[in-house]
Write a structure and sequence with these properties.
This protein has 334 residues and is α+β, with helices and mostly antiparallel strands. Helix content is 63%, strand content 12%.
Length: 334
C-alpha cells in the first residue's frame, strides 16, 4: 500500500514538474514575441528618421539664392551637409465641400504623385493672419476703377443728352450707369465691413508647401566642382522635380507654383518671427535693407545686471577720484 502511495506521489511530482516546464516555455515564447515586436517598432522608427534626414531640419540654412533675374527660382542652401532645398506652394481647397467623385479623383491623383516620387519630400503647413492691408489696397484700386468708369459713362450720357441722340442709346447708358453706381456703393459697404471685422478679430489663412531636396555628392565627380557649378546642378535638379510635382498637382486640380527667392525669404521670416512678422512686414524689412531673417538679443535680466555693474564701476571710479583728491590735499597741507 505504501509503495502505491509513493508511486502516486512520484507521478504527481513528475506531472507538476512537466506543467512547470511547459509554463516556463510558454512564458519565454511570449517574452520573445514582445521583444521582437518592440525591436521592429524601434527599427521602423529609426528607418523613418533616416528617410527624412535633412528635411526635418529644413529650418537650418546658410543662405537663399535665386537662379537669375529672368528666372528667380529660389533655393535654400545648407553648406554643412551640402543640401539644397526647393519649395513649391500649393493652393488649398475645401475638401469637405467637394463632391464624392472629385474627392476620389483628388485622392487617386495624390496617391499617384506620392507613388511616382523617387526622392524625399516634406509637406509644411503654415497658419498666417490674413494681410488685410494688401486686400484693402487692391479693393480700393478696384473701387477707383469703378469710379472712373462712372465718370466716363456720366460724361458720355451728358454728351448724348446735349446732342439729343436716340433715346435707346441714352437708356442703355443710363442702365449701365445705374449698375456701376450700385456696384460702387455695395463695394464701399463691403470694404468697410471687412476692414472693421478684421480689426477686431484675427482671421487666419493656411498656406501649404512641399519641400524637396538635392544632395550634392562630391564622390560622384572625378574633379571638384566650383560652388557655381554645384549651384547650377542644384537648380536644374530642383527645377525638374518642381515641374514634376506641379504637373501631378495640376492633374489633381490643385494650383501650385515654385517659390522665388523673396517668397522663400518671407516664408522663413514668418517662421522665425511668428509674432513680429505681423507688425514688421517682410516687404518693409527688405525695403529698409534689413539683411537678417531673425534677430537675437540678451535676456532682460542679463542686460539689467550689466547696467548695474556699469553703474557700480562708475561709482567706484568716482570714489577713487575723490580719494585721490583728498590724499593730494593732505600732502599739500603737510
Amino acid at each position: 500500500m505504501l509503495e502505491m502511495i509513493n508511486k502516486i506521489k512520484i507521478v504527481v511530482m513528475l506531472i507538476a514538474v512537466l506543467y512547470g516546464i511547459v509554463f516556463l516555455v510558454i512564458l519565454l515564447r511570449k517574452q520573445n514575441r514582445l521583444s521582437n515586436k518592440t525591436n521592429e517598432k524601434q527599427n521602423k522608427a529609426k528607418s523613418k528618421q533616416r528617410n527624412f534626414d535633412g528635411l526635418d531640419k529644413m529650418i537650418d540654412f546658410d543662405m537663399i539664392k535665386t537662379f537669375s533675374t529672368d528666372n528667380p527660382i529660389g533655393v535654400v542652401i545648407e553648406d554643412v551637409r551640402n543640401v539644397y532645398l526647393g519649395i513649391v506652394s500649393v493652393d488649398g481647397i475645401n475638401y469637405n465641400l467637394t463632391d464624392v467623385s472629385d474627392r476620389e479623383s483628388l485622392e487617386s491623383g495624390f496617391q499617384t504623385l506620392l507613388n511616382g516620387l523617387d526622392y524625399k519630400i516634406k509637406i509644411v503647413v503654415q497658419s498666417r493672419k490674413i494681410e488685410i492691408d494688401n486686400f484693402a489696397v487692391q479693393y480700393t484700386e478696384n473701387l477707383k476703377r469703378i469710379e472712373k468708369s462712372i465718370m466716363h459713362e456720366q460724361s458720355k450720357l451728358n454728351m448724348l443728352i446735349s446732342k439729343k441722340d436716340n433715346t435707346k442709346k441714352i437708356e442703355e447708358v443710363k442702365d449701365k450707369l445705374d449698375k456701376l453706381r450700385s456696384q460702387y456703393e455695395y463695394g464701399i459697404k463691403l470694404n468697410n465691413y471687412i476692414l472693421s471685422k478684421c480689426e477686431n478679430e484675427n482671421i487666419l489663412d493656411k498656406k501649404y508647401y512641399i519641400c524637396f531636396p538635392y544632395y550634392h555628392n562630391a564622390s560622384q565627380y572625378k574633379e571638384n566642382l566650383t560652388d557655381e557649378e554645384i549651384l547650377v546642378n542644384a537648380f536644374y535638379d530642383l527645377s525638374n522635380k518642381a515641374e514634376s510635382i506641379i504637373g501631378s498637382l495640376h492633374r489633381c486640380g490643385l494650383n501650385s507654383k515654385v517659390l522665388t527667392g523673396h517668397e522663400i525669404g518671407e516664408l522663413y521670416y514668418r517662421t522665425y518671427n511668428r509674432g513680429d512678422s505681423e507688425v514688421y512686414k517682410y516687404k518693409k524689412a527688405i525695403a529698409n535693407n534689413f539683411s537678417h531673417l531673425y534677430t537675437s538679443s540678451e535676456a532682460v535680466e542679463v542686460k539689467a545686471l550689466k547696467r548695474r555693474v556699469d553703474e557700480l564701476q562708475k561709482l567706484e571710479d568716482g570714489l577713487n577720484e575723490k580719494k585721490g583728491e583728498i590724499k593730494e590735499g593732505g600732502l599739500i597741507l603737510d
